[in-house]
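QUALITY CONTROL LOG
STEP: pairwise intake check
CHECKER ROLE: data steward
CRITERIA: each record must contain a sequence immediately followed by its structure tokens, with no blank fields

ENTRY 1 OF 2
RESULT FIELD BELOW
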Amino acid sequence: MDTRYAVYLHFELLGAIPKRGNQGQRILKFVRSLAEDPFLEGDFTEKDDSLRSLQIKIVGDYAVTYWVDHPVKCVMIVDICVADT
């Protein structure tokens, strides 16, 4: 039985990932890791407008925001942005 989850992100979010240096690689590595371990909690949690719990993981200088839909085995990446300092 396949225990991997599908990971989805909107095409436009790819533009937020740095193309130079290792931060972009670190972000993509983290995103890929969510397929193997979708129970990984972020560094912070907040609620969206529908009261869904969003996980926010700090990866280098960036914040990756995601939520997990366990019944359909998918992780939704909803934002990648420079983290607040």
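ENTRY 2 OF 2
RESULT FIELD BELOW
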Amino acid sequence: MEFKYLIMFTKFTISKKREEVPNNWYLIDADGLVLGRLASFIAKMILGKHKVEYTSHNDTGDSIVVINADKIKLTGRKWKNKIYYRHSGYMGGLKEITAEKLHAKSPESLIYFAVQGMLPKNTLGRKLNKKLKVYVGEEHPHQPQNPELITIN
């Protein structure tokens, strides 16, 4: 009687390194888009969740350029009721500003804060946050990267 030995192959997931995953550049026109929906789309693209090679502990995402940040929309009464907080670190140093005043002062910071809140709160999240470039108006200095235009419904 002859025995045949079965060789079992183990199945495992191959995790790609950062150098093996291509970094694409995308351009988004924020004219008339709602802030929260735009920020969640940008966070998904920066994290790389739209790619097959996505791993949560690696930087596998793409770089995003956002233009026309001053033409962003907020729904409901958020222009007056949404408040952004920061603290100086001293006693009584809590500062607050409404979305309307922040938009008048620095329109691109609305998008930065919204996307930053959707990224991980660790060193990888801080690294990923640098992949977002937001500009007021149509002009941006990233023409050599040939960003691909994305339209969001």
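INTAKE CHECK: passed for both entries
DESCRIPTIVE NOTE, ENTRY 2: DSSP finds five helices and six strands in the chain.
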